[in-house]
C-alpha cells in the first residue's frame, strides 16, 4: 500500500543491473587474466553506481508522506553530486588535489546525512527523542572532523585516537536508537511513532478512503436524482 516513489524502481533496477554487470565483468577479467586501467575503471564505475543506488534507496526509505523531508532530499542530492564527481574524476583522469579533496569532503558529509536519515526511520517516544538529536550532532561532527583532516592534511596521533573514539560513539548510537525504537513501541500512544513506511501506508489508505467516500457521495446524489425523478 506504499505510495510509489518515482525514484524507487529506477534505483532498484540500477542497483540490480550494476551488481550483475560488476559480477559479469569480474568473471570475464578473471578468466582473461588481463587487468588494465580501463578494466579497473569499468569495475569502479559499476561499484560506484551500485553504492549510489543503495544510498538513494536508503534516502527513499526514510522519506515521510508529509513534511519537507530535508534530510532524505539532501542525501539524494549529495549522492548524485558525489557520484558524478567520482565518475568524472575517474574517466577524465583528473589529478587535481583540490578536486579530490572536495569530492571526499562531500562524500563524508553525504554519508553522515544518509546515516542520520536512516536513523530517523526509528520513531522514538518523547522521553527518548533527545538521543536522536544528540546522535545527529555527533554523526555530523565526525563527518566535519574527517573533512577537516582531509582538507588541512592533519596528521596527529592524538587526533586519530579521538577519531577512533568518536567512531565508537557513533556506532553505539546507531545500535541504541533502534533499541529505543522497540521500547517506544510499547507506549500506549503509538500514533506518533509510525515508521516512514507505515506512515506512507496509512497515508495511502486514508487517501483511498477519501476517494471512496467521495465516490459514495456522488452515487448517493445520483440515486436521489434518479429516485426523485421517478417519483415526479
Write structural notes for this entry.
With 232 residues, the protein is mainly α. Among the domains are: 1-89; 194-232. Helices cover 79% and strands 0% of the residues. It is built from 7 helices and no strands. Helix 2 runs parallel beside helix 4 (97-119). The protein is extended. It starts with 7 loop residues before the first helix and ends with a helix. 19% of the residues are buried. Keywords: Membrane, Transmembrane, Transmembrane helix. The chain crosses the membrane at residues 12-31, 43-62, 74-92, 98-118, 130-152, 158-180.
Tell me the overall shape.
extended
**How many angstroms does the end-to-end distance come to?**
45 Å
The succession of helices and strands, N to C, reads: HHHHHHH
What integer is the average pLDDT?
83
Note the beta-strand portion: under 5%
Radius of gyration equals 25 Å
Q: What's the tally of helices? A: 7
Helix content: over 70%
Structural class: mainly alpha
Described by strand count, sense and barrel closure, the largest sheet is: none
Q: Ranges with pLDDT <50 over ≥5 residues?
A: none
SS elements, strand count? 0
